[in-house]
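Before we proceed, please read the two lines closing this message. Let me know whether the C-alpha cells fit the sequence:

…
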Amino acid sequence: MSQKSPFEHRARKRFGQNFLHDAGVINRIIRAIAPKSSDHLVEIGPGQGALTRDLVDSGARLDVVELDQDLVPLLLANFSLKDNFHLHQGDALRFDFSQLQQQGEKLRVIGNLPYNISTPLMFHLLSYQDLIEDMHFMLQKEVVDRLAAGPGDKHYGRLGIMVQYYCQVDSLFPVGSGAFNPAPKVESAIVRLRPYKERPHMAQDVKQLETVVRTAFTQRRKTLRNALKSLITADSIESLGIDAASRPERITLAEFVAISDHISNNPTEP
C-alpha cells in the first residue's frame, strides 16, 4: 500500500487551483520568458512549482507569492536551499510589490492566474507599472482574447482598452486543458504585457478615461451618441472627428482618450 507523501496537496476550488504538469508547455513558457541570471523575477501563485524550478535554475533572484499556506512546506522543501529563492506567504491582491525592488531594478512578473482574480490582480500590478519590465500570465483564453482585441473585434471592450492604455499586449500561444491537473473546463493562453516607458496616448485624467470607457460599454449595442449622452454631446463627439453614430467597439483607444480629454476640459458639458 503506497504511503501518502507529507507534501501531497489537492487542488482547491476556492483558490481556483489547476496545477500545470505538461513538460512541453512548461518548456515553451520558460522559452517565452527567457529568464536571465541578471533578472529579478516575481512568480505569483507558484503552486507545486511547475515553473519555479526552471526560474530558480536560471540564476535570477526569484520572489514567489503564494496564498495557500498548505503549499508553503512543499515549496520550501524543494527550493529553500537555493540562495536566490525567496517565499512570501500572502495574498497577491494585497501584496506590496514595491518592497521587492532592489537598487532600482525592474521586476519581471510571472503567474498562472485563477480566473476569479485575474482582472483585479492585473490592475493591482499596473499600479506598480513603473517598477515592472514585463508580465507573463497564464489566463483563460477568453481573457487573453479580450486583452489583445482591437476595434471591431467581438472581444474588444473595457478590459482590453484599459490594459492597452498601460501596456503593449502580446497574445503568445494557447494551452489546452490537458496540460493541467485537474483539467479546467476552459482553454488557457499565455499573454505578455509590457508596460510602456512612454504611453502612446496619455489621458489628462485616467479616472475620467475609465469612466468614459465603462459608460460606453455598459450597453455596447448603443451608438456612442446615446451611450455617452450623460457625459458629452453628439456635436462635441463629431467635433473631435469621431462619428457619434458609431458603436463603442469601433472606437480606438486614441479616440477614447480624445473624448475623455474633451470632458476633462469641459466639465459643465453636456
In short: Residues 13-195 form a domain with the Rossmann fold fold (CATH 3.40.50.150).
